[in-house]
Design a protein that fits this description.
alpha/beta, Rossmann fold, 9 strands
């Protein structure tokens, strides 16, 4: 089989854990040199170590995506170390303490928007300017960007904004011969949602099917991101792909409502 990212360079934010770590490892397995960016440098370095242990190429960098300087720095590293950028997975984000809208503080709201929306916007600007022709950018939104999330309003608002950002940016990316899309995961079994993070990667064709309307593994989500980052999805631009094991496909059974 041909490695679909052979001789390509990928940049992944939030690459130190969860979906980001799984994506970094899978990109490397498919031939990419990977820049692993994370606000926790030790986590980014651990991901790079896992890649190197399998013979891949990776460089780790600390990056706070809410910082314009840090966004520029991680793209600079990709170009300096590996000569250019072909795939950008803007996956980093933050949650908020769950609670009703009336308890949401301005400080929490501003922090979530600064990271999830403003920070990703800064990455999108860099990706549009830096991606080589034929390249692709994928943004991690959420199902809470498709429907409301009463217990995490700031998070939901930020993810709604990301879907709008991706749709609005599609023309600008196309002008430069590249693409941008979003993924909208449902419940993912990762550290961000309070589950133990896993370092092991499975063979993609051997991944188990999630339960109907059930939770997904980080790798199951990462595999969809890889498809959208690859030339195999060349006809897809400006779209938001749900990854939810059919959670939003239909109303829940009446027995759960009544």
């Amino acid at each position: 089989m041909t490695s679909i990212f052979a001789d390509k360079t990928a940049l992944v934010t939030g690459g130190g854990s969860g979906i980001g770590r799984a994506a970094c490892q899978r990109l490397a397995m498919e031939g990419a040199a990977v820049v692993v960016a994370d606000i926790d440098l030790s986590s980014a370095e651990r991901t790079a170590e896992l890649i190197a242990a399998r013979g891949g190429q990776a460089a780790a960098i600390r990056a706070d995506i809410s910082s314009e300087q840090d966004n520029q720095g991680m793209f600079d590293l990709a170009e300096r170390r590996f000569g250019g950028i072909d795939a950008v997975f803007l996956n980093a984000g933050t949650l908020q303490p769950y609670g009703p809208l009336e308890d949401l503080s301005i400080e929490t709201f501003d922090r979530v928007i600064a990271v999830n929306l403003r920070g990703t916007f800064l990455g999108v600007q860099q990706a549009r300017a830096r991606l080589r022709p034929g390249g692709s950018c994928v943004v991690t939104a959420s199902l809470s960007g498709v429907i409301g999330f009463a217990e995490a309003a700031a998070y939901s608002i930020s993810k709604h904004g990301l879907i709008g950002l991706v749709r609005s940016a599609a023309a600008a990316f196309a002008e430069r011969g590249s693409r941008i899309n979003a993924i909208c995961p449902g419940m993912v079994l990762s550290g961000m949602t309070g589950h133990a993070g896993l370092e092991a990667i499975e063979e993609p064709d051997g991944l188990a099917d999630p339960a109907y309307r059930g939770a997904l593994s980080a790798q199951q989500v990462a595999e969809v991101a890889l498809f959208l980052l690859s030339r195999r999805s060349a006809g897809i631009n400006g779209q938001a792909q749900n990854i939810d094991a059919a959670l939003l496909s239909a109303f829940p059974p009446l027995s759960e409502i009544l």
